[in-house]
Write a structure and sequence with these properties.
This is Nudix hydrolase domain-containing protein. The protein has about 160 residues and is an alpha+beta fold. The protein is about 20% helix and about 35% strand. It has helices at about 55-70, 140-145, 150-165, and strands at about 5-15, 25-30, 45, 45-50, 80-85, 90-100, 110-115, 125-130, 130-135. The strands form two sheets. Strands 1, 2, 3, 4, 5, 6 and 9 form a seven-stranded mixed sheet that branches. The mean pLDDT is about 90.
Length: about 160
């Protein structure tokens, strides 16, 4: 079995744009040297790995949100959007949706990880897990998200459409 992750895809109302959704989602640009010069396919739902034997997916998603962004995940109702497999087959992510209008992106303090950089140099450096997070409309988020997380965005849009009917 591959890596098991959980994350939170926050959404908030927004002025209706050209896509007609009237919603924005919060996604984060992955940190570290590999992602620094990339934009398309270099953004992620705030998420991280967990052990299902020790922690529920929802609890892990809330913990990882706080670790990556430095603020607690918002209180309120969470809807499970599903578990999505990456095309490599080596990773799955269970994604929860929540309303996030109260989240202040200016308060984010990004968690860090250590990496040997440059490779084979013997020198460890710290890098942010994510280097920025932004609210954006779904079409823009789709272009920026890693491919394995795009189905979670689709699931959120279906859920919001069903709720408005």
């Amino acid at each position: 079995m591959g890596a098991v992750s959980a994350g939170i895809l926050l959404h908030r109302p927004a002025p209706e744009g050209p896509d007609g959704s009237g919603v924005q989602v919060l996604i984060a640009h992955m940190g570290g040297p590999f992602w620094a010069a990339k934009d398309a396919g270099a953004w992620s739902i705030p998420k991280g790995e967990f052990d299902p034997a020790d922690e529920s997916a929802r609890d892990a998603a809330r913990r990882e949100f706080a670790e990556e962004l430095g603020v607690p995940a918002p209180d309120g109702d969470y809807a499970e959007l599903g578990t999505f497999a990456y095309s490599s087959g080596r990773k799955t992510v269970t994604v929860f949706a929540a309303h996030g209008s109260a989240v202040d992106t200016d308060a984010f303090v990004y968690g860090e990880f250590a990496l040997e950089w440059p490779p084979r140099s013997g020198r460890m450096q710290s890098f942010p897990e994510v280097d920025r997070a932004e609210w954006m409309p779904p079409p823009e988020a789709r272009d920026r998200l890693v491919a394995g997380q795009r189905p979670a965005l689709d699931a959120l849009l279906r859920l919001l459409a069903a709720a408005s009917d």
